[in-house]
Design brief:
The protein has 5 helices and 6 strands. The chain is an alpha+beta fold. It has one domain.
Length: 155
């Protein structure tokens, strides 16, 4: 006997280019039950792609954009501490090509991307550690947040 509800939950979103890029679950395999949250995440994926991000083929719901300085990530998979349905917005992070890149330069790149995504209605966030911990890249920066504003508008 097939449970229709479970079958519908485990669907994959196929992009207009025919690529499977989003899966209706978080990075731990837990299903995203809310239709509103799922549709919001799909719309965010579309916006990210329109801004030059590429959907990862190995990790559904993870998008990246390569630059000459490194790779920017927009993660729609959630974390162990913050489920994607609680904060349905991309968490952004950056891996520099140069492992010795100064924190000031990393901060400048991430902040610029944060502002770009925010101005394009992607409502990004950064890791709690980057904002709240004294050694975080954005500790004390009031323009960068580890919380997103879409939470209240989606649910």
């Amino acid at each position: 006997m097939v449970n229709i509800f479970e079958t519908q939950i485990l669907i994959t979103y196929i992009s207009p280019m025919g690529q499977a890029r989003m899966k209706r679950e978080d990075k731990f395999g837990r299903p995203i039950y809310s239709e509103k949250v799922w549709q919001h995440l799909v719309a965010l994926g579309n916006r990210l792609e329109s801004l030059g991000y590429i959907a990862s083929t190995k990790s559904p719901n993870l998008f990246y954009r390569r630059t000459d300085k490194g790779t920017l990530y927009a993660d729609l998979r959630g974390t162990e501490e913050v489920a994607i349905w609680d904060e349905p917005c991309p968490m952004i992070y950056f891996y520099p090509t140069d492992a010795n890149m100064p924190d000031d330069e990393k901060r400048k790149i991430l902040k610029s991307e944060f502002i770009k995504l925010k101005s394009n209605r992607c409502e990004p966030r950064v890791s709690y550690m980057e904002v709240m911990e004294p050694d975080g890249l954005f500790f004390g920066d009031e323009e960068i947040d580890c919380d997103c504003t879409s939470k209240s508008t989606v649910q």
